[in-house]
Design a protein that fits this description.
The structure is a homodimer. The first copy, chain A, has about 110 residues and is of the alpha+beta class. Chain A has one domain: Winged helix-like DNA-binding domain superfamily/Winged helix DNA-binding domain (Arc Repressor Mutant, subunit A). In chain A, helix 4 crosses helix 5. Chain A is elongated. The first copy, chain A, binds a DNA duplex (30 and 30 nucleotides) through helix 5.
DNA sequence: TGAACGTATGAACAAGTGTTCATACGATAC
DNA sequence: GTATCGTATGAACACTTGTTCATACGTTCA
């Protein structure tokens, strides 16, 4: 490939890409989906809101582990909390999550 | 919450969830999206197939870094290679990727 | 043949991440 | 008040991950 052509292609693609900050944010967003514990927590929440100890039982991990991961999910606006007495009930923030989840499933089941 | 009710909920949710192996695979799949270098590589490939050195220039990283990451993308069937002379041209495997990408964008731009 | 180029890969290192333990906090029940 | 329960959080640790350097491989061209 000629150097000139190479430079043109690089410039062209660079122009059409979203700005770098957005792509870094996007990576951080997907990072949240990239852990099996968090994926299982989100999956459990597809059905209904759940307390922390319920989630811990479902995924078979320590309460503190689940609590730490719920914090991560909260920070990326993937879940919301509702307090009721001693318990915290978590639920999914919106239905984007379920769609992204399903698209991922489609891909790996090919 | 009564112990009985707790147990029922846990059993119920467990039944409705995909099996654990699938969810682990899914996490591994999303893990690939969770790195800014890989995200930028995929994003660059939305337009057209590109050689390794072009990609390196676009994302502003070493050729070996890009090569390592392309290997990861290949292993998860996200990109495919076509060799032509000294060059390797990479392109996206399918259009799921772009859709997942766009859904992620939608979420963070809210 | 040898040199130059594009690419792939292994080793090494730094940085990041997930889990557990211990503990603190807040609310309820006694 | 104290005890108990559910939850949150900090520290410590092992483990994973991304990048770079050095180098090897394969192809083209002289």
């Amino acid at each position: 490939m000629a150097h000139e052509e190479h430079r043109e292609i690089v410039q062209d693609i660079k122009k059409q890409m979203p700005d770098t900050d957005t792509l870094f944010e996007l990576a951080d967003f997907f990072k949240v989906f990239g852990d099996s514990t968090r994926i299982r927590i989100m999956c459990a929440l597809f059905e209904r809101e759940l307390s922390v100890c319920c989630i811990a039982d479902i995924v078979g991990m320590e309460q503190s582990t689940v609590s730490h991961q719920l914090r991560v999910l909260r920070q990326e606006n993937l879940v919301k909390v509702r307090r009721e007495g001693k318990q915290s009930y978590y639920s999914l923030e919106d239905e984007h999550i379920q769609k992204i989840f399903e698209m991922g499933l489609e891909h790996i089941l090919e």
